[in-house]
Design brief:
three-stranded antiparallel beta sheet, 1 helix, Rieske Iron-sulfur Protein, four-stranded antiparallel beta sheet, binds FE2/S2 (inorganic) cluster, alpha+beta
């Protein structure tokens, strides 16, 4: 049978164990509360899908109705931790003060840059003679589909182009 002093010692030991266990649990909780958000903050850029940059193509008044104009620009593309300066371009056709056709500048056949032939009123791809009308529809040649488009918005009189190609 345990003596009273031994019972006191055992109670002291189990109190110490309890306290040290409680301190360890609290310390782990505090450590987790600090490190988990920090790790999340560090790795979150790598987990986010790359954003589609938006670029101003200038004032809507810079474009004439139904007269295609090629616009070239630079923008910053962010992918994870990497941000790089990239050049881009688009063919813009003004349909009204707020409506535009904004085409990706690569032909839908094999990706050659095409141009606007003002005399014929057609987009012409020099690589294999692909021909598109002002709305991007294929008129002749090997392109398998209409011109791809870029999304846009008009904000405060400016044409803003989103660098995200929508396949036709
Ligand atoms: S790449 Fe344009 S027609 Fe072939």
């Amino acid at each position: 049978m345990a003596q009273p002093s031994e019972v006191g010692q055992q109670a002291e030991i189990s109190r110490r164990r309890f306290l040290s266990g409680a301190v360890a649990v609290i310390a782990s909780f505090i450590g987790g509360a600090i490190t988990i958000p920090a790790i999340g903050h560090i790795i979150s850029p790598a987990l986010k899908p790359p954003e589609s940059p938006q670029v101003s193509a200038g004032s809507v008044n810079d474009f004439q109705l139904r007269q295609p104009k090629r616009v070239d620009f630079f923008y910053y593309k962010t992918d994870g931790w990497i941000e790089e300066r990239t050049s881009g371009s688009a063919w813009v056709v003004k349909l009204s003060e707020t409506q535009f056709n904004v085409f990706d500048p690569r032909c839908t056949h094999l990706g050659c840059p095409y141009g606007w032939d003002a005399e014929r009123g057609q987009f012409v791809c020099p690589c294999h003679n692909g021909i598109f009308n002002i709305n991007g529809q294929v008129l002749a040649g090997p392109p398998p589909r209409p011109l791809d488009r870029l999304q846009y918005t008009v904000q405060k009189g400016e044409l803003i182009i989103k660098q995200e190609v929508q396949r036709a």
